[in-house]
TrEMBL record:
NCBIfam families referenced in this protein's UniProt entry, alphabetically: PRK05303.1
Signal peptide: 1-25
Keyword set, alphabetical order: Bacterial flagellum, Cell projection, Cilium, Flagellum, Periplasm, Signal
Signal as UniProt keyword: yes
Organism per entry: Seohaeicola zhoushanensis
An example molecular function term from Gene Ontology annotations: structural molecule activity
Source taxonomy: Bacteria, Pseudomonadati, Pseudomonadota, Alphaproteobacteria, Rhodobacterales
Subcellular location: Bacterial flagellum basal body
Protein known as: Flagellar P-ring protein
Amino acid sequence: MRLTPLRLATRLVAMLLLLAGAASAEVRIKDIAMFEGVRENQLVGYGLVVGLNGTGDRLRNSPFTEKSIKGMLERLGVGNLTDDELKTANTAAVMVTAMLPPFARRGSTIDVVVSSLGDASSLRGGTLVVTPLTGADGEVYAVAQGPIAVAGFAAQGLNASIVEGVPTVARIENGATVENEIGFRLSELTSLRIALRNPDFTTAVRIAEAINAKLGGRRAAALDPSTVEIDIFDKANIPGLMADVENLTVQPDTPAKVVIDARSGTIVIGANVRIDQIAVSQGGLTVIVKEEMKVSQPEPISIGGTTVVVPDTTVVVDEKETKFTILEGDVSLQRLVDGLNAIGLGATETISILQAIKAAGALHADLEII
């Protein structure tokens, strides 16, 4: 069955309603918050990928690659190379990034992402040379090396070329070894702090109440919209306390919001959105101008006749019938969507209607356009 734009919009809205209903259900604390201090850390490094099949950096356009190759070869005992002697096209300068997980121990491995820095056309088939990875404090926390895996590819001939994916970005699974640990001990904490990913006073209070109901007493308290603090009585069992807390379920609260992506025509309406009673009408005039170029030739036997190009223009006016629909005040999300669908709107028209309702002061929600 072929879906009309109205049916497609109705089905998409129905899916959004299901998602809105699911958002109001109870979720685990670990899915909406994290323990303060237990987080990942970004690592970055600069290195070289070798072994490329002529798809590396052109040294004339990437002087930093040339200097890096010279420096690497000098450390390996090969020195005094001139610019004319260094003409390799099998090497590329890259930036190497990784995420150091919390409590990563010395000798464990982490994944790394390798991204081309110069004008290399592809990193396929290359091998990353030993690359130290440093943190924001300048200390080396891991060392990366190994063959890289590229998802995309690039091929070209004399008159045509094709590129699939991004062949200048690659990954190395377990490609870095942790060499330095971040000093963080749970036993040194006097209290646990939970940081909400989406700060909200109501959600923070509900988390504190759920923890107190589980542990007993008043051990947890909401400090602000994004932080809940828990007192620690038994330092020998902090991991067990964290496991008990993160698996508790609460019902998070969210503000009323309408999010619009005007580029793709995506509209997401929160479950708490309310409007005052208004009357909505949508209509417009569509003018289609079609212009074709035709060739006019002279008669078979004529003097001074020439072939000319004559434009042929067709103008069609399509006037859409307008309808008024009354949206009652303090309606639910379902009735709001039903009222908009009753007008027979597409995504673009719905965006304009919502913006107009907000401008009229009848939409009681944040309107965010991304």
